[in-house]
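Aim 2 progress update. The chain analyzed this quarter is reproduced below.
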Amino acid sequence: MSEVIYMPLRGEDTDCWRPVHADRVSNDIYEIAVDVEPSGERWLFPPRSLVRCREHVFVDGQAGLVAFELAK
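Predicted structure tokens:
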């Protein structure tokens, strides 16, 4: 079952995240369930990669899982 995680965007003036669908592989490892980045965006990690996620509280006070490194 797919969950929403937040992908950091590169090349932005402020911290920006794209919500993406991902499948949980283990406790904190997710496989990005997206085949192609949206046009004009540069994601920190490529589509279909395995990433490690952690909880993050955004500026608006909402919390979510943010991809922070490639899983090995």
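The chain has one domain: 2-70. The chain has a mean pLDDT of 95. These observations will guide the mutagenesis experiments scheduled for the next reporting period.
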